[in-house]
Amino acid sequence: MEMEEFQKLAIETVNKIDKKLNLNRDAQLTLSQLIEELGELARAINSEKLRNKRAEKKELEDEFADVFLQLVKLADLFDVDLEKAVLDKIEVLIKRHALG
User: Fold this and answer.
1) d(CA 78, CA 9)
2) What pTM, to 2 d.p., does this model score?
3) pLDDT of 25-77, one tens digit each?
């Protein structure tokens, strides 16, 4: 699956869930949910140091996926093509840090 299709699938899935929950999503709600999901990812990653318990790979995968879904939806709300944005940024970083 190409990245564009992948992003569209993520957005469509979030949109279907929102419709089912009768939720009118906006940027502020999506940003808040992204921050919440980042917190859950941080808790999972930090669990080894804080709770002496290593996070299971499945838990980490779930948390990364939640972060990704919210990030993709937020980008969509601002009409940002994440694939293009990331590729453009990589090009800038390669030039800035003389990596090419």
Assistant:
1) 17
2) 0.91
3) 999 999 999 999 999 999 999 998 888 888 999 999 999 999 999 999 999 99
Residue given tokens 């469509």 in the structure block: 12
Q: CATH number, domain at 45?
A: 1.10.287.1080
> How many domains, in total, are found in the chain?
1
Which residue type, as a one-letter code, is found at position 70? Q
Instruction: Check residue 100 and give its pLDDT.
Output: 82
Residue-level pLDDT at 75: 97
Other Cβ atoms within 10 Å of 40 Cβ, number = 14
**CA-to-CA distance for 51 and 45, rounded, in angstroms?**
11
Please give the Cα distance from 100 to 92 (Å, whole number). Answer: 11
Phi, psi of 88 (to 5 degrees): -60, -40
On whether the CB atoms of residues 64 and 58 are closer than 8 A, the answer is no
Range of the domain at 23: 3-96
